[in-house]
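#struct-help
A.M.: can someone run this one for me? Single chain, 95 residues.
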Amino acid sequence: MSKKRSRRRFTNEFKAETVKLVKQSDRTMSAIAMELGISAKSVGEWVRNASELEADHLSEDERAELKRLRKEISELRMEKEILRKATVFFAKENR
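D.P.: on it. Structure tokens below:
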């Protein structure tokens, strides 16, 4: 029988302190993670999540505007791709 490895759970306070340490220190995330005995991948996720939460302090108007702009960017990219393909098509046709 194989032993199942249990997942370690970390408190939100521990994660917050680790993120704070990463942001305030001049050492790499990997070095801090090794020092704390945890994976660098976990520390990287915690830092990324913390950055997203900090950026998440938008008002409802700002959220609506951001959503609208993202949709517009998506549509513009699609239009650009259609025009690029049409240009290639007509360039081949005119030869």
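A.M.: thanks! The chain has four helices and no strands.
D.P.: also worth noting: The two ends are 69 Å apart (CA to CA).
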